[in-house]
Amino acid sequence: MLSLLSAAATAGAPIHWVDLGLTRGIDLGFFTLRWYSLAYLAGIVLGYWHLTRMIKAPGAPMAQRHADDLFFYCTLGIILGGRLGYATFYTGGDTGIPSLWAHPGELLKLWNGGMSFHGGLIGTVLAMAWVSWRNKLDFVRVGDYIAVCVPFGMLFGRLANFVNGELWGRVATGVPWAMVFPDGGTLPRHPSQLYEAALEGAVLIVVMLLLFWKTRARWRKGLLVGVFTFGIALARFVVEFFREPDAQLQEFAVRTGLSMGQWLTVPLILLGLFFVVRALTRRPLGAAEVAAPA
């Protein structure tokens, strides 16, 4: 695939997604296993594996049993929150009533429509709050550890969007890597899924892992949460300039000057900055304050 992208870019012709030989899943005959589902699974499992490594390092705010609870409840939060968020923010257009809420049965059809990052984030935060409250854990410090693991899922999810040929970008002129997607018309477009995979996934993975393993960031309560929140919101805000707005929200984007995704990231950017500033202006935690719960 990389050789095809390089050759097309060199020739100056737009790249055609269909020529990449990608499939939207694995056909098992009786059932098609979607890459998007596998991406969610891979991100969640890899995040859980890394969390179990993190809590073995000094300063962990939780024990293994808490990590197991978080794995279960955060998985529910991602799926339910992502789906309900998509139904709330991205369906219905200007009618005032989201179409998926008008037909609740459609919510269960995960293959029809999509998942919302903001909804999944809300679901994950609620899951963390529940586990923290039930086990008397420090909610913000739990969030610090979860924040390091989330970019894994973002990377796989955005790559799956590209493999599915969905959520393509705006029409691009003079861009050597512009691509023609099957459902995006005949004009070449930005492969914005890859931009998101790079910024929300790969770059943030490197930043968060370096902060956790190579610095004392985990001893500053809320710093990792703040960096993650600010970083992923800023990345999403930037990429939205290249991403085609959902068809039902194009008029909204024209009328307000920003896409729905951008409006939803503004509060996250401010929240991330708040956590970063607060963490850096407070005294780092001491050993007695970070004793792991039994």
From TrEMBL:
<keyword id="KW-1133">Transmembrane helix</keyword>
<feature type="transmembrane region" description="Helical">
    <location>
        <begin position="222"/>
        <end position="242"/>
    </location>
</feature>
<keyword id="KW-0472">Membrane</keyword>
<feature type="transmembrane region" description="Helical">
    <location>
        <begin position="262"/>
        <end position="280"/>
    </location>
</feature>
<keyword id="KW-0812">Transmembrane</keyword>
<keyword id="KW-0808">Transferase</keyword>
<protein>
    <recommendedName>
        <fullName>Phosphatidylglycerol--prolipoprotein diacylglyceryl transferase</fullName>
        <ecNumber>2.5.1.145</ecNumber>
    </recommendedName>
</protein>
<feature type="transmembrane region" description="Helical">
    <location>
        <begin position="28"/>
        <end position="49"/>
    </location>
</feature>
<feature type="transmembrane region" description="Helical">
    <location>
        <begin position="145"/>
        <end position="163"/>
    </location>
</feature>
<feature type="binding site">
    <location>
        <position position="158"/>
    </location>
    <ligand>
        <name>a 1,2-diacyl-sn-glycero-3-phospho-(1'-sn-glycerol)</name>
    </ligand>
</feature>
<feature type="transmembrane region" description="Helical">
    <location>
        <begin position="194"/>
        <end position="213"/>
    </location>
</feature>
<comment type="function">
    <text>Catalyzes the transfer of the diacylglyceryl group from phosphatidylglycerol to the sulfhydryl group of the N-terminal cysteine of a prolipoprotein, the first step in the formation of mature lipoproteins.</text>
</comment>
<keyword id="KW-1003">Cell membrane</keyword>
<dbReference type="InterPro" id="IPR001640">
    <property type="entry name" value="Lgt"/>
</dbReference>
<comment type="pathway">
    <text>Protein modification; lipoprotein biosynthesis (diacylglyceryl transfer).</text>
</comment>
<dbReference type="Pfam" id="PF01790">
    <property type="entry name" value="LGT"/>
</dbReference>
<feature type="transmembrane region" description="Helical">
    <location>
        <begin position="70"/>
        <end position="90"/>
    </location>
</feature>
<dbReference type="GO" id="GO:0008961">
    <property type="term" value="F:phosphatidylglycerol-prolipoprotein diacylglyceryl transferase activity"/>
</dbReference>
<comment type="similarity">
    <text>Belongs to the Lgt family.</text>
</comment>
<feature type="transmembrane region" description="Helical">
    <location>
        <begin position="110"/>
        <end position="133"/>
    </location>
</feature>
